[in-house]
């Protein structure tokens, strides 16, 4: 077993213990198929009825990939791509409503940590946090090479990559399991404000 | 300068009796605190390096507090160079004024909040509402107690004292007010779904977000927020205007310090390696960015904290509000948070409340709500000497003549006897012939004066007709 495989295994163990689902594209060309299967599994399990609208953005190594071709055939799914660069205040409200009405968010991720089952996302003009937050289901695409042994190591590398540029990204989010609460009678309930279900699709480097 | 804390003005015996008669609260708080305390032990056992990092975290916090002012200056400079504005607030009143000014300047009508003990300390909601601004708590537990017009009973799980029937009734009432569909049933999932739907509308419509902060990183000008529900992500991502109110003691010097402390609240509080959501805010959003605040204000609150610096109580400023001391405290498990009458309950509340306010409020806490069992001292991940501090606070009360004369005299009289072996033996002889008034069915059932209280709920065996020392003297002693 290679070191990357061992890290992926450890990540999977932690992430699934938290209630997350993990799917793995063992060969680069399998990613579309694995993503479609992950998507189908998640929506059938958590949203068995009703229309499906996806808002998505992808890691830079997958840029240009049109998800509509992959998911469009599943229960008539509509796919909307995160707007690339530039913002207009006038349409901000409409965009927010569109996000709030969608059922699934698909995002890339900056890195992950094997010891805690954590995935890190940064807000930037082309990578938004709202698709990881507003929808009932969140599916994360994770490049296998970005899995760090520990959250400590991940945060250290994050710092090295960004502090050199003089500033940290203004908004960063570490996701370690689905949204949950034990505020009523101490009983665990999944899906309070954020997603009730999260999945990670791990893929091999350089597909396209 | 002394701090100001809001308090429950009911006297201690009234708060105590109310807590002991609240069946719902007692049952839930007992079960949940034990579960959390066990989860912590299990999490550490399964995570080999965790204890080593915890010790590093203690060093980081201690070191950061020692150079507090220096780090706060760096933090301020960093935040301001990344588009934010930092305000220093010496007292609770200063903080309130700053936040109101920001809100009024932007003509804010609605505010969404994350759970924050500091804003409880400020009674921020009341101040905003008095200024005509609607405030919505978005942590599920805080939302429930906001609807009930109550205070948190546990710093992590504020609505632990409420059961599902009571919460269902509150949500039904809320649904009537907001003309929305009530929860489908009193099932806990249905209640949570109602909160999700109701609060979602408020998230999307709010003009201003207010957060607390678990850590401040001086080097990068970062505010770190930890939640399990994801509400802090909503509050930091959606509104155009963001205010973070944080105690000055939350500072850590640099990013490597943050790495050492970041897992501690979840590990020690709930036994998770990291909470579901950790949000790091390091500035306003960039020109092409959709998300994050356009304007960000950080209010650094003192409110009595810095007067603990360079005193034997300085380690109290290392508290990360994980709640581990509450979860193991036998008194907290019996009476819950409300009985303390302070924003901060449990062992840390016993210590902090009198210290932040210079004994102005609730001076009974160190004397009445601690059995000196030392469980909190063992549980605290930041090695805060809670039991030692409680003893020292009791001494300070005595030095300041804050105890009732009857109490002081009783203890002095008791101490006079029990401070020497001879006095102790003499007291036993006296007790042997004095006790027959109080012995019923072979047990001591009552006692005169202050000691009588002890027998209200228990009895004790009588003093033996011959003590061990007497027996030794008469048998072995004579042989020599």
From TrEMBL, chain A:
Residues 9-202 form the LUD domain. InterPro entries: FTHF_cligase-like_sf (IPR024185), LUD_dom (IPR003741), NagB/RpiA_transferase-like (IPR037171). Pfam families: LUD_dom. SUPFAM superfamilies: NagB/RpiA/CoA transferase-like (SSF100950). It comes from the Bacteria. This is LUD domain-containing protein. It comes from Sulfobacillus benefaciens.
Automatic annotation (TrEMBL), chain B:
Residues 310-331, 361-389 form the 4Fe-4S ferredoxin-type domain. One of its GO terms (molecular function) is metal ion binding. Pfam families: Fer4_8 (PF13183), LUD_dom (PF02589). Keywords: 4Fe-4S, Electron transport, Iron, Iron-sulfur, Metal-binding, Repeat, Transport. GO terms for biological process: lactate metabolic process. This is Lactate utilization protein. It comes from Sulfobacillus benefaciens.
């Amino acid at each position: 077993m290679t070191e990357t495989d061992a890290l992926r295994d450890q990540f999977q163990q932690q992430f699934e213990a938290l209630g997350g689902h993990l799917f793995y594209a063992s060969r680069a060309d399998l990613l579309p198929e694995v993503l479609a299967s992950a998507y189908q599994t998640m929506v059938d399990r958590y949203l068995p009825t009703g229309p499906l609208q996806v808002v998505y953005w992808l890691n830079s190594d997958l840029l240009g990939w049109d998800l509509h071709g992959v998911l469009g055939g599943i229960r008539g799914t509509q796919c909307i791509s995160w707007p690339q660069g530039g913002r207009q205040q006038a349409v901000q409200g409409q965009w927010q409503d569109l996000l709030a009405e969608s059922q699934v968010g698909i995002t890339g991720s900056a890195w992950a940590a094997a010891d805690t089952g954590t995935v890190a996302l940064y807000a930037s003009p082309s990578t938004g946090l709202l698709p990881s937050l507003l929808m009932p289901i969140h599916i994360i695409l994770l490049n296998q090479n970005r899995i760090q042994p520990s959250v400590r190591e991940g945060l250290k590398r994050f710092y090295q990559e960004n502090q050199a540029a003089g500033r940290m990204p203004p908004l960063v989010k570490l996701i370690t399991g689905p949204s949950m609460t034990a505020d009523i009678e101490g009983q665990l309930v999944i899906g309070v404000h954020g997603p009730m279900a999260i999945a990670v699709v791990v893929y091999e480097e350089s597909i396209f | 300068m002394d701090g100001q804390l809001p308090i429950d003005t009911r006297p201690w015996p009234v708060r105590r009796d109310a807590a002991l008669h609240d069946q719902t609260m007692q049952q839930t708080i007992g079960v949940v605190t034990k579960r959390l305390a066990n989860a912590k032990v299990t999490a550490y056992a399964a995570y080999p390096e965790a204890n080593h990092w915890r010790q590093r975290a203690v060093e980081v916090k201690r070191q950061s507090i020692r150079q507090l002012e220096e780090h706060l200056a760096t933090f301020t400079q960093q935040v301001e160079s990344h588009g934010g504005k930092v305000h220093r607030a010496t007292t609770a009143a200063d903080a309130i004024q700053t936040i109101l000014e920001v809100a009024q300047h932007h003509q804010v009508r609605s505010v969404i909040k994350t759970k924050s003990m500091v804003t409880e300390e400020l009674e921020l909601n009341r101040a905003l509402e008095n200024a005509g601004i609607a405030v919505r708590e978005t942590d599920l537990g805080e939302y429930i107690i906001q609807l009930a017009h109550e205070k948190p009973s546990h710093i992590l799980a504020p609505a632990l004292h409420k059961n599902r029937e009571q919460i269902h009734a509150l949500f039904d009432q809320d649904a009537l007010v907001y003309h929305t569909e009530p929860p489908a049933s009193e099932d806990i999932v249905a209640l949570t779904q109602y909160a999700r739907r109701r609060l979602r509308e408020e998230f999307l419509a709010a003009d201003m977000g207010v957060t607390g902060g678990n850590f401040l990183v001086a080097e990068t000008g970062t505010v770190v927020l930890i939640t399990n529900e994801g509400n802090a992500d909503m509050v930091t991502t959606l509104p155009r205007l963001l205010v973070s109110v944080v105690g000055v003691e939350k500072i850590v010097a640099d990013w490597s310090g943050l790495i050492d402390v970041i897992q501690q609240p979840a590990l020690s509080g709930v036994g998770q390696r990291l909470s579901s959501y950790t949000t790091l805010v390091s500035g306003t959003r960039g020109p092409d960015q959709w998300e994050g605040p356009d304007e960000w204000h950080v209010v650094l609150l003192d409110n009595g904290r810095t007067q603990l610096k360079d005193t034997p109580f300085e380690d109290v400023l290392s508290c990360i509000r994980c709640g581990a001391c509450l979860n193991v405290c036998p008194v907290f498990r019996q009476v819950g948070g409300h009985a303390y009458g302070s924003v901060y309950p449990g062992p840390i509340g016993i210590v902090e409340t009198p210290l932040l306010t210079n004994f102005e409020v609730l001076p009974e806490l160190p004397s009445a709500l601690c059995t000196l069992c030392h469980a909190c001292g063992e549980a605290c991940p930041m090695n805060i000497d809670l039991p030692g501090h409680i003893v020292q606070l009791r001494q300070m009360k005595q030095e300041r003549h804050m105890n009732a004369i009857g109490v002081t005299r009783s203890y002095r009289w008791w101490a006079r006897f029990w401070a020497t072996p001879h006095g102790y033996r003499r007291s036993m002889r006296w007790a042997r012939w004095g006790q027959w008034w109080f012995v019923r069915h072979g047990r001591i059932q009552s006692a005169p004066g202050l000691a009588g209280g002890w027998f209200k709920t228990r009895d004790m065996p009588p003093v033996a007709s011959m003590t061990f020392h007497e027996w030794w003297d008469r048998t072995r002693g004579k042989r020599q």
